[in-house]
Amino acid sequence: MTDISAGEISFTRSINTELVAGYDLYISLSDGRNVVAARSLTVLITDINFPPSFQLPSQNITVFEGTHSGSSIFQPTITDGDLLDSHTFSVIYYPPEGAVYFNVNQSTGLITSLYDIDYETIPFKSFLLIISASDSLSEDTTNITLNIQDINEPPVFTKTNYSLTPSESTGGTALYGPFYQYTDEDGDAVKFSLDCGADTGRLDIDSSSGLLSFSADYDLDMVGTASQINCNVTISDNEYTDMAYINITISNDNDNAPVFTYSIYTFYIPVTSNVGSIVGQVQAIDNDIGSYGNIFYHIALTDFNYGLFHVNENGSIFVSQSLTQYSEGSILNLTIYAVDIGNRQASTLVYIVFLASYAAPLTQGNGIQFFTFFRYSPNMAWFVPLMCVLFVTVCVVTHTIYTTNCTCLKRVKVSLHKRINEPIPTTNGCLFTYAHSDSISPTAG
């Protein structure tokens, strides 16, 4: 601007942000009648301030889930012709909640996170940051859009060691556990798998719930069946996996009741048996191993003959009272129970027969008295006469057959001697002579 009266030249605006290095001014002088030819004046501007400039006016940046607090996210790039200029950055967030999760450094413009980024919990999935950079004279702006990207997070066991103590049972029985503790922040559907080494086939696992069950009947009473199984359980979301460990201790169950070898026992004793003498022995078997396989015997308390006998721990029956009040040939019965410690039981019926006085004495071997056919006197009462009758019958039949054969032989010999008219010898040393009168007369010879 030129003062027309004084010819003074001045600025019409501030040149602080002027970027043109100089101007040529053409000045003419006039007195109102005449005009002097114009002269040029060159004005040079020194120490020009170049404004800062962002490399891009806008950018989209992906922020991955799982970015930790304090992590660097993005560094905007700025250029400035004044290499020595320092810059100050400022930011405006849309939505304003962006200020809670992100920060822009005032000196460098670096964008960092203020919180661990969790896609499932952060309320907004995109934030706009309008960032300005100033050198105190000029400034520039850029729009940075931060997009939160969901990533697949692995399932994680928060508890990695479990133990179960189920009882032996049939195939398909659920073990009701373990109750796994795990997280999957994505809420993905997970699958479970089981590895028990050599015992893998003994257990099944529900792939959705992880519930365990016996794949077949599990019986510790079978030789070779393990009472403890160690397994690895794997959880997977089809991309990531994690592992936990299970110790399974199977307890023995009282799954077998005692069984008597015979449903009925019969023992023979004399009525004169002394108190404390053995009557016989019953035996039961329990297929359970361990303490459940131990058997105890007792006579039914309601049995009419309860007080007369007692049974010990190995099933041997003994006389408890005098039996002389009973007659020979009488029969008493007892009901004996075999019970294991789990109160499973079986019973058998025992008959006690009082021998007649003529019965042969019995030897006691293993405590059970057995009578053979010939040692039981009543059998001999009919067996001996029968044998005598059979013997006489055999003798008579043999004699009859022998006599008949001799008669036939004599007739044949007589017929032959008649034809040849020769003496006929007999078995007693006599000779018979054939005569024409058809008669035979014996001769000595």
TrEMBL record:
Residues 5-54, 55-157, 158-260, 261-363 form the Cadherin domain. GO terms for biological process: cell migration; homophilic cell adhesion via plasma membrane adhesion molecules. The chain crosses the membrane at residues 349-368, 380-402. It comes from the Eukaryota. This is Cadherin domain-containing protein. GO terms for molecular function: beta-catenin binding; cadherin binding; calcium ion binding. One of its GO terms (cellular component) is catenin complex. Keywords: Calcium, Membrane, Repeat, Transmembrane, Transmembrane helix. Its main location: membrane. It holds the Pfam family Cadherin.
